[in-house]
Amino acid sequence: MLDAKAVEVMRNFNEDDLFLRGLTSWMGFKQIGIDFTAAERLSGKSSYNLKKMFTFAFTGITAFSVKPLYLAAYLGFLFSALSVIGYGVYVIHSFIAKTEISGWASLIMTIVFFGGLQLIIMGIMGIYLGKIFKQVKDRPNYIIKNKNF
């Protein structure tokens, strides 16, 4: 249930795909919980399967946060750094053990390094797109609770 003030604010949003559960918390109005026990379904069964629940969760995450995009960039930095460090350790070990450096290690580390670079670039592009996405939603920076005029 929503108060008339909250509904009025929500009507002013220009978004196509409103995520109502997130918006009700985001607006910041006072909220209370009402305990109730849902009655057992009289007929049929829920159409909310596992796929729909994952889609709903993913929509909730992406509607209010660009943090997953930062995660991609950070993972790229991590993979690239680990490949450089791992290959450095492998080269030092081969000098100490006086063994040849096999081609597979160089190949794997190169693939991981450039995969990490690609993740970094995709993460940065995603962050820019996420900022544009937030700007296009045109949500207000603040909501005025009461007007004294």
Task: Give a verbal description of the structure.
This protein has 149 residues and is mainly alpha-helical. Helix content is 64%, strand content 0%. The mean pLDDT is 84.
Beta content comes to: under 5%
Q: What is the radius of gyration? A: 25 Å
Order of helices and strands: HHHHH
First-to-last CA distance? 28 Å
- Helix share, percent: 55-70%
Largest sheet, in brief, is: none
Number of helices: 5
| Low-confidence spans | none
Count of extended strands: 0
Morphology call:
elongated
Mean pLDDT: 84
Q: Tell me the structural class.
A: mainly alpha
Name a few traits of the molecule.
149 residues, 5 helices, mainly alpha
Provide a brief overview of the structure.
This protein has 5 helices and no strands.
Write the layout of secondary structure elements.
Elements: H1 4-11, H2 20-26, H3 50-64, H4 67-97, H5 103-137
Helix pairs in contact: 4-5
